[in-house]
Amino acid sequence: MPDTQVSTPAAALLPAIRAIVGERGLITDPVDTAPYAEDWRKLYRGRTPAVIRPANTAEISAVVRLCAQAKVPIVPQGGNTSMVGGASPMEDGSEFILSLSRLNRVREIDALDMTMTIEAGVTLKAAQNAALEAGCMLPLSISAEGTAQIGGVLATNAGGNNTVRYGNARDLVLGLEVVLADGEIWNGLRRLRKDNTGYCLRQLFVGSEGTLGVITAAVLKLAPRAREIAVALCAVPDAAAALDLFGRFQAYDATTIQAFEFLSGAGVDLVLRVIPGAVLPFARPAPAYALVELATSRPDAGLRASLEKILETALADGVVTDAAIAESEAQRGAIWKLREEHSEAQKRAGASVKNDISVPVSKVAELIRRATAACEKLIQGVRAMPFGHMGDGNIHFNLVQPEGADPAWFLAQDHALMEVVNEVVRDLDGSFSAEHGIGRLKPYLMTDWRGGAELAVMRRIKQALDPNGIFNPGRVLP
Amino acid sequence: MPDTQVSTPAAALLPAIRAIVGERGLITDPVDTAPYAEDWRKLYRGRTPAVIRPANTAEISAVVRLCAQAKVPIVPQGGNTSMVGGASPMEDGSEFILSLSRLNRVREIDALDMTMTIEAGVTLKAAQNAALEAGCMLPLSISAEGTAQIGGVLATNAGGNNTVRYGNARDLVLGLEVVLADGEIWNGLRRLRKDNTGYCLRQLFVGSEGTLGVITAAVLKLAPRAREIAVALCAVPDAAAALDLFGRFQAYDATTIQAFEFLSGAGVDLVLRVIPGAVLPFARPAPAYALVELATSRPDAGLRASLEKILETALADGVVTDAAIAESEAQRGAIWKLREEHSEAQKRAGASVKNDISVPVSKVAELIRRATAACEKLIQGVRAMPFGHMGDGNIHFNLVQPEGADPAWFLAQDHALMEVVNEVVRDLDGSFSAEHGIGRLKPYLMTDWRGGAELAVMRRIKQALDPNGIFNPGRVLP
């Protein structure tokens, strides 16, 4: 701990906090690096007097009460996998990190209710596994699931691949336990499908990115475990054809579409070139691809036959030019690998600019077409590699630097590129942050996009629930 | 308009309001009766200086601004079908009724997005029909759908028969347009499946029963139109067997269960006795029944065969003692009639006490068993006729007076009966208001059931969003 920190209000609380959480509940050295004070994307490296790791909700309540009295800010932290620096402390060392990691019990699973009561510090992967063991499925999947924790997943309203069918994290929450800004505990761990008794507080905390309260536990809805899964990669002429294909699957049986992902030809080419073991299941590359995953719990659904039937018609209509249906789990993995290695491949190709954007589903093809053209006009040779969740309207519109260009020069074009993309997004009534949230990276965009009455109401809610601004100050709201 | 009202602050605003909404937008006589100042259940008959009927959101904004300045309270009103008096004005004539009826346009339907942008005054039935015409389905159905309007449906987070599959009204909302307590308009009519840009305001207004803002329009999610529907009535030994049967359907394919309703033997007997045309499709009555409706958009699903297969096994296991599968739409209607006529039949049998309660789905059978026993112990001869949405844990635990008893005497036992039922509900971690809300009838229960930190947060939110308390004062919060 550097000397300059010892006299801060935060550091002055350390003895009292130690008395609450014990030695095991406090880390003071080293804390100013990953995995605590540096974020996942290495965008921010802050400082903190300590990482507080309470063992249970009562300890969190006592710690928050103490910090509230001293007006010392707190950054709640789960797996620290935020894409927007949402869980990293400020550089001035004024903020405690409150780690939820020790609240890691699955309290209860009920396979008839199809619910799971779970603490904030359980990783998403562990939660998925616990659901599977009970014969159910927690239908939420994101790249960071091995590290991301339930508390953060809910605080940021995580999305991912299965939103097209199951919605976002928000849609899976029946109940919450939250420590409020004065240290009071709200026990709202109800597992009811219907409960109209006052304001829906849980949905206020979900997605508030730790600025209104600390989520300590939750009741989540589960889904039946899939008995049959069918995966296909489809070569298509363009994004419009991919969207046409999505409409066909949706019209047939929307309840079976577990994922519908778009991949640009350029993005797949790059993966094939730089990722060992990546293989295209076609003789020649295509301008674009759609990855579709169907699943059902119904034992005799004949999903594979349905998939073939829809693809046959699409092939006949020229909507699909080639299709590969996975014949084994290994082949399923190989198809998904082409999608999942996009981020890694782009990293290896030099600097890249990421846009996590969404539009109404019907406008995704137009978004891809127009935003690609706008970026290519702005920077000659820029490689647009849009990919992601076409079925829910959320595209990761990533731009890779021109081959051979200076990465630093390209990154300096960051804002200009985001602006031309966002202009198209705005014109299509979309969002500048689909699933990654606001965190520290994007509050400056809030005034322009969500200003006026909307931002005013958000500010009034923040003031009402956290009048001293001790939870994640400076995040989300500009 | 009685003379005593002319000098109130509300009446003093009438000329200014008339200047905003015009003659067509104002009803001053007669207003102190149904359909305006008396509620659907005839529990409350209030008084109002006028029913204001603005033509659009801008007019509502101007009216609210005026009332906010004068601190005159407003009761937003849609179809006025609240079960808890939520849209009826107080008896002192101090409150305007703000009718949304003239905002009755379906603004847009997009069959690929599967969304509908719709104004608050459209009836639920009209909205369902508009969705069907577009080849989709608005998957929300309640008894009052012919009269209830979208604004009220959302403000009260309506539930109904299809919650088991599609969730409550809350789960169908992607965007909202709301007039706030200072008259500002929040345009949050986004039709995005993913949008993480700040607090989720829409879910705060949904279910707030008009106490935080006036919902003027919404974007709702649609579902694919069903191509196959299969309905069966199943005779079962008891509620536990009905719940067992639900588990079997859920394990087979939860996505096809469109409704799963429980009916008591006593309730069905009463319907058969007093409702003309009601017919039991079995040779002899049973202790209880389950009504299951399966539906799918998949054209070749073989739903009927699935239904038969599950019922065969259930019959073999003694879980079901008899089953009738509808062979036609007329037969489907006849089976549903036994369920839908419960309220009417009970009305004809004398006085009755209604409890709209919910518990976790796995505890519904225990709820029915224990609450029935508790009521029968309290009042000899009382006829417990629980029915409703077993698949989502919501039972209408209605109690009909003993045959030949004095209705007034029975109604005086109202609170005692509700208390013994609620004691069981509470023990099973349930809710005293599942889908009907709080309105004017149940705020007194909020302190006991939702008190402490939860109610404190609700009050802070009310204060933050409606500091002068002009929207529906005295409703929801005690």
What labels would you give this structure?
eight-stranded antiparallel sheet, disordered N terminus, 478 residues, five-stranded antiparallel sheet, homodimer, alpha+beta
Give the rounded overall mean pLDDT of chain A: 96
For the biggest sheet of chain A, the summary is:
8 strands, antiparallel
Shape designation of chain A = globular
- Report the radius of gyration of chain A as a whole number of Å: 23 Å
Assembly status:
homodimer
The N- to C-terminal Cα distance of chain A equals: 31 Å
Characterization of this structure:
The structure is a homodimer of 478-residue chains. Chain A has 478 residues and is of the alpha+beta class. In chain A, 34% of the residues lie in helices and 20% in strands. In chain A, a hairpin with a 4-residue loop joins β5 and β6. Chains A and B meet through β9, β11, α8, α16 and α17 of A and β9, β11, α9, α17 and α18 of B.
